[in-house]
């Protein structure tokens, strides 16, 4: 397992630099205990991340939660667990083996441990959780739930979590439920008192910092939904699918809060729960055609179903915003695990020659920022725009800078002829009069008799009329290719971090960002310098093109088997294929720096003795 | 879908509607369907109905899927906004458009392949949402553009042009609509324009999903002996269950209306659908009675036509969603964006 790569030495006492993994059974209420710990650490002002590794199941299967604290702000997934909270007999053997040398394991000592799984190199911390909770609580469900709160109490003691903050959080959470507040307090005390009495201080602990003053704790799906509200989306159509469901749940909640008209009391939005994804995308197309800002949120299987109509939107030039929260494919795949496997599917979605605009946010902050951008681009270029997030970004809580809103923002509705402009022209022909971005003005139904035209997915000339004549067909389809290329200057620019004397470049996208940046720093500390580029949109911009040009060797880090970003780079830029090597991590869990470093090290053919 | 330009010559004696438009102003481009196609008669009935209702052309959205029927939106109301979408997907696209702009009159033209096979699920759910649309199924029991395969509405035992008998039970849009809770259900015959025009007018006034199944013989692939969707068979077997009139709000209701225990239904805009003649014990507002009547007649091989069922009391998609009375697209952005101070305040929840 261990490779000589370590983020920090395990033998020193460390403040605000360690990782905890909590192994639970799904559906037992562990999420609220784990969330409480995460939020308390956040409020202590310490950089922290929480990764929920959960099954596609409501009750009974194994689920894990990982908390990493790091004073330097490295919050990608860590693979070295200093402390394991082993609450699930089903996975106990695996969980014991994952604790780092010299680490700790907290378990429910109501029952004895399997002696076969004993390790001499770690410390076992027993807390009689079930026994204590059975003594203190009568209701069987409460006994199960409170066991979680009790281990949270033990961790509060063991890790030095600020109890005042915890109390405050419980007050906020249970302000309307006094009895539940009391149960939680009692359970928390059980664990806390037991740990204080029985455990020596651990060699790692927390200490208040001030890193989170201007930060919030939010998941990407919530941020995406908020971005759609701020973008002015009024029609949303969707079909429930993990891991994107919470986008629409949040959108609905925000609309209920912000979109009830203060004068009329009416809803200034309409959410359509469609019969399937074919319908969802059809509804978005219809609403956009009629002039609304409309979007759908889905995952890979939904994109597969939407393919047919995405081609219609592309060819008929109708704005569409698709939020794709990627999960592990193919087919049903692993619905609750993360991947970046829809890149090629989205880039070329639908039959025939189609090519789309894609946005790749890396975290909830960019989800919020890119959502209005997606609508602006869709309307400016009159075409589908995909915002590709993933389960890790979408469903995990991230610490990000506070969101801000630029009051001067005006939606870019693109070229839409209003009644006044229509008066100036003698005849409206849909696909004529293109601008410098190869976009022709459109009209909306119901505005003016002169604006009427016939939208069709069948072959059409630039007048909009049906055609089967090769030259007329080519004239339109060639403009669409130019139009898509023109979008390169409008997608969010690629981000570059250069290191003096860089030996190679690393290219990545989306949710890989944090792990790859950490890997770059760890490599640099070991004398291996690499330049970093994160693409944030497709078609690739000039910054990405230049970066590819400047480097003789580039590692492309992404979370899929088939090196889809590398494929897209070789297809859509002039980079010679041989310059690009792949780092592929696609088992379904969020990326860690270690995986990146290991892969690069092995491909470099050297044993990297990397230390932070 | 080639469109041939039609010479527009308007005779001065042509009658004008409330907007001062003649019936010619509601025509479209020249049909490219086969000569004698039932669909062209439906197009003509639609033109007449829309003209009589004096709808401003640009306030009409005409949508379709793919198939012979779906070509026809090009052949009526050139001044309307048209959307020839993908096979079976007209209903979702109309749903989205209607969500964004409820002020337009939505006309969906579909066929039996489009609505009863590839787009069946979408139609069912549009019915459940009570989407406000005139939804016409131009029903000929056959796939025309691909040359003669049975469609899902082909009757048991009906024979194809190659003499092959259909062995599967049909999907009947009327029974389906009744069971799904459709709020306006009619069946017409493309050969009976007099019956069809008032039905179409009532359908466009209905607040909700108006399902109009029109038997429309395919002269090329399904008009032979042995077919139950041929002109001859339909003419022989069609029985008008109801005779209807559509009366605009301003017009005085004629004295003859209401005879024979017939029913007047007031539409939400104040217009009236009057059933001039209905069979004894038939109540076009009683779903169960209509259902059993239809089953009984179907057993006898009859093709029951007329406005068969109507319910004006069910809320449509917008009423269910409590949206503004005017189009959502008219809400200004300033009202849609909560602004920076709301964002600042909201984020206290994310600490």
Mean pLDDT of chain B: 91
Number of strands of chain A: 23
- Largest sheet composition of chain A: 7 strands, mixed
The neighbouring-strand order within the major sheet of chain B is 2-1-3-4-8-7-13-9
Residue ranges of chain B: pLDDT <50 for 5 or more in a row?
Answer: 251-259
CATH topology of chain B: Rossmann fold
Helix content of chain A: 25-40%
How far apart lie the N and C ends of chain B? 58 Å
> What characteristic shape of chain B results from the CA principal axes?
globular
N-to-C span of chain A: 18 Å
**How many structural units, i.e. domains of chain B?**
1
- Count of DSSP helices of chain A? 19
What is the CATH class of the largest domain in chain A?
Alpha Beta
Structure description:
The complex is a heterodimer of chains A (about 600) and B (about 350). By secondary structure, chain A is α/β, with parallel strands linked by helices. Chain A has 4 domains: about 15-205, Pyruvate-ferredoxin Oxidoreductase, domain 3 (3-Layer(aba) Sandwich); about 220-400, Rossmann fold, CATH 3.40.50; about 420-490, no CATH class; about 495-605, Rossmann fold (3-Layer(aba) Sandwich). In chain A, the strands form 5 sheets. Chain A has a 7-stranded mixed beta sheet with strand order 11-10-12-13-15-14-21, sandwiched between helices. In chain A, strands 3-4-2-5-6-7 form a 6-stranded mixed beta sheet. Chain A is globular, with a radius of gyration of 27 Å. Helices cover about 30% and strands about 20% of the residues of chain B. Chain B is globular and about 75 Å long. With about 350 residues, chain B is of the alpha/beta class. In chain B, strands 2-1-3-4-8-7-13-9 form an 8-stranded mixed beta sheet, with helices on both faces. A 3-stranded antiparallel beta sheet of chain B has the order 10-12-11. Chain B has helices at about 40-55, 70, 90-100, 110-120, 120-130, 175-180, 195-205, 230-235, 285-300, 315-320, 335, 340-345, and strands spanning about 60-65, 80-85, 105-110, 135-140, 140-145, 150, 185-190, 210-215, 240, 245, 265, 270-275, 305-310. The model of chain B is unreliable at about 250-260 (pLDDT under 50). Chain B has a single domain (about 25-330), classed as Rossmann fold (3-Layer(aba) Sandwich). Classes of the chains: A alpha/beta (about 600), B alpha/beta (about 350). The interface between A and B is large, with 73 and 64 residues. Strand 17 of chain A pairs parallel with strand 2 of chain B.
């Amino acid at each position: 397992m261990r490779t000589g790569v370590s983020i920090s030495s395990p033998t020193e006492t460390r403040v605000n630099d360690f990782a905890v993994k909590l192994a639970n059974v799904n559906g037992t209420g562990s999420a609220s205990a784990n969330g409480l710990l995460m939020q308390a650490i956040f409020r202590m002002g310490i950089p922290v991340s929480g990764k929920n590794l959960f099954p596609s199941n409501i009750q009974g299967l194994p689920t894990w939660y990982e908390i990493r604290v790091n004073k330097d702000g490295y919050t990608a997934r860590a693979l070295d667990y200093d402390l394991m909270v082993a609450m699930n007999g089903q996975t106990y053997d695996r969980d014991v083996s994952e604790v780092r040398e010299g680490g700790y394991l907290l378990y429910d000592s109501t029952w004895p441990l399997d002696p076969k799984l004993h390790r001499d190199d770690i410390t076992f911390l027993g807390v009689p959780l079930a026994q204590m909770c059975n003594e203190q609580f009568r209701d069987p469900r409460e006994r199960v739930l409170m066991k979680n709160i009790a281990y949270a109490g033990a961790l509060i003691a063991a890790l030095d979590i600020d109890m005042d903050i915890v109390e405050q959080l419980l007050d906020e959470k249970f302000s309307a439920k006094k009895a539940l507040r009391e149960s939680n307090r009692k359970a928390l005390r059980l664990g806390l008192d037991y740990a204080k009495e029985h455990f020596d201080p651990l060699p790692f602990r927390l200490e208040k910092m001030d890193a989170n003053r201007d930060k919030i704790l939010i998941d990407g799906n919530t941020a995406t939904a908020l971005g759609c509200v701020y973008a002015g989306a009024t029609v949303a159509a969707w079909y429930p699918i993990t891991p994107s469901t919470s986008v629409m749940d949040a959108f609905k909640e925000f609309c209920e809060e912000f979109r009830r008209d203060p004068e009329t009391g009416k809803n200034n939005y309409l959410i359509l729960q469609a019969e399937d994804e074919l319908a969802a995308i059809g509804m978005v197309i219809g609403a956009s055609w009629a002039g609304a800002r409309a979007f759908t949120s889905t995952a890979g299987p939904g994109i597969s179903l939407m393919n047919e109509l995405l081609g219609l939107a592309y060819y008929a030039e109708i704005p569409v915003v698709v939020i794709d929260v990627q999960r592990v494919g193919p087919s049903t795949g692993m619905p609750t695990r993360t991947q970046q496997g829809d890149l090629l599917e989205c880039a070329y979605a639908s039959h025939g020659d189609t090519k789309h605009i894609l946005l790749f946010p890396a975290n909830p902050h960019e989800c919020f920022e890119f959502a209005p951008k997606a609508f602006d681009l869709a309307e400016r270029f009159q075409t589908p725009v995909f915002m590709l997030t993933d389960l890790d970004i979408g469903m995990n809580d991230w610490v990000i800078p506070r969101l801000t809103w630029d009051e001067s923002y005006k939606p870019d509705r693109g070229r839409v002829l209003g009644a006044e402009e229509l008066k100036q022209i003698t005849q409206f022909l849909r696909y004529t009069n293109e601008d410098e971005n190869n976009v022709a003005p459109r009209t909306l139904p119901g505005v003016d008799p002169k604006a009427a035209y016939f939208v069709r997915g069948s072959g059409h000339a630039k007048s909009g009329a049906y055609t089967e004549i090769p030259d007329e067909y080519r004239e339109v389809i060639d403009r669409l290719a130019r139009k898509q290329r023109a979008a390169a200057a409008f997608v969010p620019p690629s981000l570059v971090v250069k290191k003096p004397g860089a030996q190679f470049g690393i290219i990545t996208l989306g949710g890989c960002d944090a792990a790859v940046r950490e890997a770059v720093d760890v490599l640099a500390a070991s004398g291996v310098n690499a330049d970093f580029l994160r693409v944030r949109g497709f078609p690739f911009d000039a910054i990405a093109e230049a970066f590819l040009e400047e480097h003789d060797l580039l590692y492309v880090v992404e979370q899929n088997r088939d090196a889809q970003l590398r494929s897209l780079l070789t297809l859509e830029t002039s980079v010679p294929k041989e310059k690009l090597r792949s780092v592929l991590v696609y088992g379904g869990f969020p990326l860690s720096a270690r995986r990146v470093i290991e892969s690069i090290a092995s491909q470099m053919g050297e044993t990297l003795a990397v230390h932070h | 879908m080639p469109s041939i330009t039609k010479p527009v010559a308007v005779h001065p004696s042509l009658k004008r509607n409330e907007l001062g438009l003649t019936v010619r102003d509601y025509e479209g481009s020249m049909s490219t369907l086969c000569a004698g196609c039932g669909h062209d008669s439906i197009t003509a009935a639609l033109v007449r109905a829309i003209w009589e209702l004096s709808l401003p052309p640009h306030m009409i959205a005409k949508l379709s899927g793919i198939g012979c029927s779906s070509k026809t939106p090009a052949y009526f109301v050139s001044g309307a906004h048209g959307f020839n979408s993908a096979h079976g997907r007209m209903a979702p696209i109309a749903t989205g458009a209607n969500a964004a702009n409820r002020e337009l009159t939505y006309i969906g033209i579909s066929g039996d392949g489009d609505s009863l096979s590839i787009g069946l699920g979408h139609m069912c759910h549009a019915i459940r949402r009570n989407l406000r649309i005139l939804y016409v199924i131009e029903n000929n029991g056959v796939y025309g553009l691909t040359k003669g395969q049975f469609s899902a509405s082909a009757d048991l035992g009906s024979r194809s042009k190659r003499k092959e008998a259909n062995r599967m039970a049909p999907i009947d849009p009327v029974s389906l609509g009744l069971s799904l809770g459709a709020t306006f259900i009619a069946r017409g015959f493309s050969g009976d324009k007099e019956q069809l025009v008032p039905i179409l007018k009532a359908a466009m006034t209905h607040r909700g999903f108006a399902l109009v199944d029109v038997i429309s013989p395919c002269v090329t692939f399904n008009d032979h002996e042995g077919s139950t969707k041929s002109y001859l068979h339909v003419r022989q077997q069609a029985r008008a269950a109801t005779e209807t009139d559509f009366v605009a709000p301003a017009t005085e209701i004629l004295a003859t209306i209401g005879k024979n225990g017939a029913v007047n239904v007031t539409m939400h805009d104040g217009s009236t659908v009057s059933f001039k003649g209905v069979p004894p014990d038939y109540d076009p507002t009683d779903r169960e009675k209509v259902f059993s009547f239809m089953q009984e007649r179907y057993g006898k091989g009859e093709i029951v036509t007329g406005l068969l069922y109507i319910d004006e009391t069910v809320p449509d998609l917008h009423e269910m969603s409590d949206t503004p009375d005017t189009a959502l697209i008219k809400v200004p952005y300033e009202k849609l964006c909560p602004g920076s101070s709301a964002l600042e305040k909201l984020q206290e929840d994310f600490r």
